[in-house]
Amino acid sequence: MTGQERQAGRRSRRASMVAMLSTSLFAALPAAGAAEQPIRIGVGLDPAFAPFYYAAQQKLFERNGVDVELLTLGSAADAADGIIAGTNELAGGSETTMITRAARGDLKIIAVYTQSSRFVKLVVRKDITDAKQLKKIGIVPGSASQFATAKLLARSASTRSR
Known about the structure:
Elements: H1 3-28, E1 39-43, H2 50-57, H3 60-63, E2 68-72, H4 76-85, E3 90-91, H5 95-102, H6 144-160
Parallel strand pairs: 1-2, 1-3
């Protein structure tokens, strides 16, 4: 596959994600689009929220008659907490973030707007070559990073016991 073919495939997937996001929002909130106040969507700062930013930048919400206000927050956990507190009506976030937040309030997952097998990364110094060498790990509690770190540590512990 050439570089141009890969780039075209990425553009196609990105367009599909935006279309899926837009369709999900419009289907889930038909009455809210006609409301006087905008639908507030809590989003974080990382690339996982790109479909929301892209849809706003391309005026996809506006073109479909939906008044949306993106609330830029520190994390998906903050966005989910915003739903519980009534600050925003919708939020984007990972499954783990939403599942952990569901215990605190009434949350319902209505759509998947993006997915990636390469999104969560463990970043280390060049001299670290194995998880067993780690002494401290920073995570965001209740997030995908906490879930992925727990899985990494469990796997690392199971390989030590073999």
